[in-house]
């Protein structure tokens, strides 16, 4: 077929339209859910501040991905329903921007397991002093997530073109549609993510074993050390769900993605792109994880999860502070009068 005929097939494909509409609806739903999750993690003292920073970076990554995805699908659907043939060919620079946000958010979200494993490892090995550790360490780990994401994207975009290439037709907003890289340019970084997720899961499991083992040996342990280890055990239990979901989703996404890329030559172009968007169910993952985490953590008291520091357990809210202040300001003779009334 000619380029215009292929583009007509793209715009009229039932499965591609259905895939884009379904993913667009899910993406729109994900925004209020993710923003609520971000507010919840930021306002509730459920983990150490450094742990919260890693989770907030993860939620931010999901929001960035959803933003790129919203632009990608909405522009394509408007284009498909209003144009046909070569008139429906996507704009190169529009694709570069929205697909860039799409890929950046997904890459950043995949790196959260690594930073959480490092943060919990440091909390374990420096258990006697970690409660006094400030947020600078958490910020450094957040920057590490960014660095790892950019390393992933560097390989992904290494052979891509950042300007339109003559005699190359862009049918869909792909990363390498205008480039000259091989299929391994996409698949190699995905295999690295697969291996990394498995390693992080094993290390996180071992951290739980080590923490429980250290906590059981109470010899020469200070109160602060025992507190940190106990809260570490509870934090690892609470984060297990998060690590498991992150590992499964990005391992599955990488495994199915590489399989799809290797078999793309056996599919029609619209079918291939429809499946690409279906398997990248990152907004769905964000919605389900946020809802599950909210209702799971809501059933547990903060002290059972692992609050961030010793001093947070003794913080008073505004109402408590007001009541305490009034009690301190009462004339001491009042207590004597009340006492006499009670014994008379």
Automatic annotation (TrEMBL):
Listed Pfam families: 7TM_GPCR_Srab (PF10292)
Name of the protein in question: G-protein coupled receptors family 1 profile domain-containing protein
Cellular component terms (Gene Ontology): membrane
Residue spans crossing the bilayer: 20-41, 100-118, 139-158, 188-209, 241-260, 272-295
Keyword tags: Membrane, Transmembrane, Transmembrane helix
InterPro entries hit by this protein: 7TM_GPCR_serpentine_rcpt_Srab (IPR019408), Nematode_rcpt-like_srab (IPR053286)
Membrane topology: Multi-pass membrane protein
Subcellular location field: Membrane
């Amino acid at each position: 077929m000619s380029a215009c005929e292929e583009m007509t097939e793209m715009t009229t494909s039932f499965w591609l339209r259905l895939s884009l509409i379904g993913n667009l609806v899910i993406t729109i739903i994900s925004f209020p859910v993710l923003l609520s999750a971000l507010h919840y993690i930021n306002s509730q003292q459920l983990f150490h501040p450094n742990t919260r920073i890693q989770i907030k970076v993860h939620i931010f990554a999901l929001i960035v991905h959803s933003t790129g995805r919203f632009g990608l699908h909405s522009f394509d659907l408007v284009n498909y329903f209003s144009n046909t043939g070569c008139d429906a060919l996507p704009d190169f620079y529009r694709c570069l921007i929205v697909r860039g946000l799409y890929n950046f958010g997904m890459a950043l979200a995949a790196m959260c397991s690594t930073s959480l494993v490092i943060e919990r490892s440091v909390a374990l090995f420096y258990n006697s002093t970690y409660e006094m550790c400030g947020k600078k360490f958490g910020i450094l780990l957040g920057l590490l997530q960014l660095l790892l994401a950019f390393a992933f994207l560097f390989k992904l975009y290494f052979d891509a073109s950042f300007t339109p290439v003559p005699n190359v037709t862009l049918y869909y907003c792909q990363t390498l549609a205008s480039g000259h890289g091989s299929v391994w340019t996409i698949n190699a970084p995905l295999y690295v993510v697969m291996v990394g997720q498995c390693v992080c899961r094993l290390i996180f499991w071992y951290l739980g074993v080590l923490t429980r083992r250290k906590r059981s040996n109470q010899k020469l342990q200070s109160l602060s050390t025992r507190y940190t280890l106990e809260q570490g055990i509870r934090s690892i239990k609470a984060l297990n769900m998060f690590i498991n979901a992150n590992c499964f989703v990005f391992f599955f996404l990488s495994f199915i993605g590489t399989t799809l890329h290797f078999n793309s030559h056996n599919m029609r172009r619209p079918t291939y792109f429809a499946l690409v968007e279906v398997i990248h169910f990152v907004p769905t993952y964000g919605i389900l994880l946020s809802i599950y985490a909210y209702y799971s953590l809501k059933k547990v008291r903060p002290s059972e999860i692992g609050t961030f520091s010793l001093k947070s357990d003794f913080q008073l809210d505004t109402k408590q502070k007001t009541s305490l202040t009034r009690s301190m300001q009462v004339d001491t003779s009042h207590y004597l009068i009340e006492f006499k009334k009670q014994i008379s």
